[in-house]
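Here's my example:
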Amino acid sequence: MEIKIGVQHTPREIVLESGQSAEEVEGAVADALSGTGKLLTLVDVQGRKIVVPGDRLAYVEIGRQTARQIGFGAL
């Protein structure tokens, strides 16, 4: 699923493709926002770790879960 993260005072958003479920991402965001100095940590499909300070989050957009397509045809 695609996740977009807006960071305060930064003109570009962070966009990543994650294998985590929407509930896992939402829980990580809630944990990061629940206290000062906490970090939002997510892992993308290539294994890279993205860490954003919770107090700098402007928004987090969680895309819907999509099944991976195999082959050349689109349904």
Summary: The first strand starts at residue 2 and ends at 7. Strands lie at 2-7, 14-17, 39-43, 49-53, 57-62. The radius of gyration is 14 Å.
